[in-house]
């Protein structure tokens, strides 16, 4: 039996709790939230996708903490599941790893690439395993796409277009651009990471975007430049009108087929092949249960996660920084440098907080 403690009872904390409560091999031993009403179930968060945050915490007889340090110090906790605001991921992630815990941490890994790298380095040196919850690497329909690309099942990819757009999320944290990073860091990073996962590091990015409801970038459109793929683009936004809701989609054109995914369409996923009647690809469920199952299997087998590492998650933050710099420079092409760390190329650069001095010192490497 694996014992888990959850830090943060917002949308993702409750979604993770729902998944753990469905398993017989996991016991949620403690919860933590600074908001006493959330902690005791008097108020609760809700999701923006059907299936998120279905249950609550009011019916649980369980240890409850208002301080994250107390949950991390609890000797009965083996896995610390961090669903806190982004700017708290790094300090509490490092604290949990230093306490010898296994750690699952929500995306984005950190508010900036240098902060995220600190957490990735701490994970590499820790005795516990660490896992970044980039759920699209486990999402039904997206795993199909990754496998098709890797196997070259339909030839080379000629074009890949991703789109993730939504009404602004509720909650003051998201509206504080200095903390959340806006849609660029909090939402669009899903597609940035998945593109990196499928195609490797882009040579450069060209981005345009704007701020609408926060001080950060709330709507972004990026072209990722590769030597061997003519067109890879992604759009991300939480600047849509109030009743728009949420939609994520892709359209990938292989040499021999075209495949589409659209969470707002029915059927959700379709395959178009010359000379063959178009057909539906069945898609069931979401990626949250699959990612948690994968991490628990890694812990049980005593092996570090490979499908997503904390270094992968830090790299995703670094690519979004290049996108942000491209926006600041009017859509100019910005080369993507994942290594060495920013300190080795002229000083640390924080995501979405570029000063003119930081940009001049090498943010555009």
Q: Strands, helices and their partners?
A:
Elements: E1 2-7, H1 11-21, E2 26-32, H2 36-39, E3 63-65, H3 68-73, E4 79-82, H4 89-98, E5 102-106, H5 113-124, E6 130-133, H6 142-151, E7 157-167, H7 172-175, H8 177-180, H9 182-186, H10 189-199, E8 204-210, E9 219-225, E10 231-240, E11 246-254, E12 258-262, E13 269-273, E14 276-280, H11 287-301, H12 310-328, E15 334-335, H13 356-363
Parallel strand pairs: 1-2, 1-4, 2-3, 4-5, 5-6, 7-10
Antiparallel strand pairs: 7-11, 8-9, 8-15, 9-10, 11-12, 12-13, 13-14
Q: What is the CA–CA distance across the termini?
A: 47 Å
Please tell me the overall pLDDT: 92
Uncertain stretches of 5 or more adjacent residues: 341-365
Number of helices: 13
Strand order of the largest sheet: 14-13-12-11-7-10-9-8-15
Q: How much helical structure, as a percent, in the residues?
A: 25-40%
Global outline: globular
Cα radius of gyration in angstroms: 20 Å
Class computed from helices, strands and strand pairing: alpha/beta
DSSP strand tally: 15
The H-and-E topology, N to C, reads as: EHEHEHEHEHEHEHHHHEEEEEEEHHEH
**The biggest beta sheet, please?**
9 strands, mixed
* Beta strand %: 15-25%
Structure write-up:
The chain is built from 13 helices and 15 strands. The radius of gyration is 20 Å and the shape is globular. Helix content is 33%, strand content 25%. It has a 9-stranded mixed sheet with strand order 14-13-12-11-7-10-9-8-15. A 6-stranded parallel sheet has the order 3-2-1-4-5-6, with helices on both faces. It has helices spanning 11-21, 36-39, 68-73, 89-98, 113-124, 142-151, 172-175, 177-180, 182-186, 189-199, 287-301, 310-328, 356-363, and strands at residues 2-7, 26-32, 63-65, 79-82, 102-106, 130-133, 157-167, 204-210, 219-225, 231-240, 246-254, 258-262, 269-273, 276-280, 334-335.
């Amino acid at each position: 039996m694996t014992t888990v403690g959850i830090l943060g009872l917002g949308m993702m904390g409750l979604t993770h709790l729902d998944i753990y409560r469905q398993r017989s091999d996991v016991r949620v031993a403690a919860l933590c939230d600074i908001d006493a009403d959330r902690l005791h179930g008097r108020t609760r968060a809700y999701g923006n996708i059907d299936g998120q945050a279905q249950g609550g915490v009011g019916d649980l007889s369980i240890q409850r903490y208002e301080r994250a340090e107390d949950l991390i110090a609890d000797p009965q906790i083996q896995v610390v599941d961090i669903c806190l605001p982004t700017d708290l991921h790094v300090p509490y992630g490092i604290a949990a790893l230093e306490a010898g815990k296994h750690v699952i941490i929500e995306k984005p890994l950190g508010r900036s690439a240098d902060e995220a790298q600190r957490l990735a380095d701490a994970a590499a040196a820790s005795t516990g395993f660490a896992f970044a919850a980039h759920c699209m690497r486990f999402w039904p329909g997206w795993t199909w796409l990754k496998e098709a690309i890797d196997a070259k099942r339909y030839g080379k990819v000629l074009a890949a277009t991703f789109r993730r757009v939504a009404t602004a999320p509720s909650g003051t944290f998201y509206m504080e651009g200095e903390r959340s990073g806006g849609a660029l860091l909090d939402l669009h990073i899903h597609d940035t990471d998945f593109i990196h996962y499928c195609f490797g590091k882009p040579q450069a990015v060209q981005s345009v975007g704007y701020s609408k409801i926060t001080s950060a970038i709330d709507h972004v459109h990026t072209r990722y430049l590769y030597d061997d793929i003519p067109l890879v683009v992604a759009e991300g936004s939480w600047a849509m009108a109030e009743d728009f809701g949420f939609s994520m989609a892709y359209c990938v054109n292989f040499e021999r087929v075209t495949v589409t995914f659209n969470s707002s369409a029915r059927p959700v996923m379709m395959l178009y092949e010359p000379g063959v009647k178009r057909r539906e690809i069945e898609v069931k469920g979401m990626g949250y249960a699959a990612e948690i199952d994968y991490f628990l299997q890694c812990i049980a087998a005593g092996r570090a996660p490979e499908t997503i590492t904390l270094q992968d998650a830090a790299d995703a933050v670094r690519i979004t920084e290049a996108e942000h710099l491209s926006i600041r420079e009017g859509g100019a092409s910005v080369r993507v440098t994942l290594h060495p760390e920013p300190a080795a190329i002229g000083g640390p650069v924080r995501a979405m907080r570029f000063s003119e001095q930081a940009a001049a010192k090498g943010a555009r490497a």
